[in-house]
Design goal:
The chain has 6 helices and 8 strands, in the order ααβββαββαβααββ. Helix content is 31%, strand content 27%. A 6-stranded mixed β-sheet has the order 3-1-5-4-7-8, with helices on both faces. With 176 residues, it is α/β, with parallel strands linked by helices. The radius of gyration is 18 Å and the shape is globular. The chain has one domain: Nucleoside Triphosphate Pyrophosphohydrolase (Alpha-Beta Complex), CATH 3.90.79.10. Strand 4 and strand 5 form a beta hairpin. One of its GO terms (molecular function) is hydrolase activity. InterPro entries: NUDIX_hydrolase-like_dom_sf (IPR015797), NUDIX_hydrolase_CS (IPR020084), NUDIX_hydrolase_dom (IPR000086). This is NUDIX hydrolase. Keywords: Hydrolase, Magnesium.
Length: 176
């Protein structure tokens, strides 16, 4: 969706619905959201980031900013982290992650980043502030360097690629 289409959709929606009981909306719980991209190389290995700010591997992507969709957050973070605009396709996984420590519960989307050829991979310039390195690994090899929930989420994303369906998960495990 383009910015112009989004703006038109917002205008077409009209005035926000009024609360019948003042303050209800402010009392509702808040969730965060994030979007990441599952990029693979021609051998089927997954592109992982070695972040500068944590010991575990991550896929390109990140948390949504205020009033930003998970897809737009994913595209923005891919551009910031990899230094190149890459197409991001359909949603593979919608995963609910429970609260942990200071972090609220959240909804994490994994989108299909497709297969990167050697020429595209050569154009990637990782952001040195956030990314220490990039590596393509098969999921089974990467699993020991991932949080268990991320390993499960990516296994679910690979199932979604095979099935052609978007899968719902809870803490990385397919549900429903």
């Amino acid at each position: 969706m383009t910015d112009a289409q989004f703006d038109e959709d917002v205008r077409a929606e009209g005035e926000p619905e009024r609360e019948f009981h003042a303050g209800v909306a402010a009392r509702l719980p808040r969730k965060t959201a994030a979007g990441g991209a599952l990029f693979r190389d021609e051998a089927g290995r997954i592109l992982f980031l070695e972040p500068t700010y944590k010991p575990t591997l991550e896929i390109p992507g990140g948390n949504c900013e205020a009033d930003e969709s998970p897809l737009r957050a994913c595209c923005r973070e891919v551009r910031e982290e990899l230094g190149v605009d890459l197409p991001v396709g359909r949603a593979l996984v919608v995963d609910w992650v429970p609260a942990s420590g200071p972090w609220l519960d959240k909804i994490v989307f994994v989108f299909d980043g497709g297969v990167l050829d050697a020429a595209t991979t050569a154009r990637i310039t990782a952001d040195p502030v956030e990314v220490r390195g990039l590596v393509f690994l098969p999921l089974d090899e990467a699993s020991r360097r991932l949080r268990p929930s991320m390993a499960r989420r990516l296994a679910t994303a690979l199932l979604a690629l095979e099935s052609g369906e978007t899968l719902y998960a809870e803490f990385g495990r397919p549900a429903g």
